[in-house]
Design brief:
Layout: H1 3-6, H2 23-37, H3 39-44, E1 52-57, H4 63-74, E2 78-82, H5 91-108, E3 111-115, H6 131-146, E4 153-158, H7 166-169, E5 174-178, H8 183-194, H9 212-237
Parallel strand pairs: 1-4, 1-5, 2-3, 3-4
Helix pairs in contact: 5-6, 8-9
């Protein structure tokens, strides 16, 4: 399998201000960015730099956007790998593929973002099939995380931290939790998103108890529907 076919090509640049985060998460990420900005100075004082971060919680609440924003803030390229796409029926091949990508990210000092960590980080022995092979794969991942250089940054994301092997979870110095946004937070999100459109398209029926990603899809679909309706009525009224 070609290494580059495993990497998700995404060059979208996002600033941290564009990511909707609660104050605690924003504070943690700002600290992380500052640590890597002043990494040499911190190392001179023998201070460790957090470089292994787990983004955990609900889907569609900003984990991938966060990874892109951190990379952008540091002026680094990002390597995105969805682990659900890499798992091979031959576990040994999967281990080799992951090692190659870790080596590439460390060599290039990139931000490495592993999405759906739970796909290969499941607790050893939690699956009856190929238990021995899965244990070796988890052990490989633990070793790669352990030896990942401090001047490179590893971000991992999962919607299901409860099924990840505890030995892997212990490797992350920083864990950031993503929850479904409150109605008040969603209103701020809707206001910001809709403000870029003419006022006549801003009055949509707002949905709540959904993720930011779902809210964005809903809002944009509503705006498109209103715009198309306007265009069609204009077409009908023309002689």
């Amino acid at each position: 399998m070609n290494l580059y076919n495993l990497i998700i090509q995404d060059k979208e640049e996002i600033s941290l201000n564009e990511v909707f985060l609660d104050s605690h998460n924003r504070e943690q990420l700002t600290q992380l960015i500052k640590e890597h900005t002043y990494i040499k100075e911190l190392q001179e004082y023998g201070l460790p730099v957090n470089n292994k971060v787990l983004l955990q919680g609900n889907s569609g609440c900003g984990k991938t956007m966060t990874a892109k924003a951190v990379a952008h803030a540091l002026g680094k390229s990002i390597i995105i790998l969805n682990l659900s796409n890499i798992v091979s029926s031959r576990i040994g091949e999967t281990s080799q593929n992951i090692k190659m990508i870790f080596d590439k990210a460390a060599r290039e000092r990139s931000v490495l973002f592993l999405d759906e960590l739970d796909q290969i980080g499941k607790a050893r022995g939690s699956d009856d099939k190929d238990v021995g092979e899965m244990r070796r794969l988890v052990n490989t991942l633990i070793q790669l995380i352990d030896y990942y250089p401090e001047n490179a940054l590893l971000l991992c994301a999962t919607n299901h931290p409860e099924i990840i092997d505890t030995a892997i979870l212990r490797r992350f110095q920083l864990k950031i939790n993503y929850k479904m946004p409150s109605a008040e937070f969603l209103d701020i999100f809707y206001d910001d998103l809709l403000s870029r459109f003419p006022e006549e398209f801003q009055s949509i029926e707002r949905r709540y108890e959904i993720s930011f990603a779902e809210a964005k899809d809903h809002a944009l679909t509503s705006v498109k529907s209103a715009l198309i309706k306007k265009l069609e009525s204009r077409k009908i009224s023309q002689p």
